[in-house]
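F.,

This is the one I mentioned.
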């Protein structure tokens, strides 16, 4: 069965922070990754996890967390299906006024 992922961006950030700074959590990731991932709404089958595994270093996890935090301001945004209409109106109605060929340049003046 493929993994299922239900974590929010905040959960992903919390996971990365613990992987970067929490020694007990890092030990759990090594010894029982299924339980560790389940804490963050990620379901993985035991047979899908390789026997030989090594979690990234604390420094690598901290670097991943820094990248995740750069995009934190997007997490507060809400999806608005009507927002695309502003782009459609702009490109659909305003852009035809832009000359696209040599012969049209004179007509646009």
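My design for it:
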């Amino acid at each position: 069965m493929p993994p299922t992922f239900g974590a929010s961006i905040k959960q992903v950030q919390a996971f990365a922070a613990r992987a970067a700074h929490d020694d007990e959590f890092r030990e759990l990731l090594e010894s029982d990754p299924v339980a560790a991932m389940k804490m963050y709404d990620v379901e993985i089958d035991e047979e899908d996890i390789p026997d030989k595994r090594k979690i990234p270093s604390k420094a690598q996890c901290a670097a991943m967390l820094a990248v995740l935090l750069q995009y934190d301001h997007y997490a507060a945004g809400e999806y608005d299906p009507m927002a695309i209409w502003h782009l459609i109106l702009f490109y659909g109605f305003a852009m035809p006024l832009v000359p696209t060929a040599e012969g049209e340049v004179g007509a646009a003046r």
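The beta strands are 4-5, 42-43.

Talk soon.
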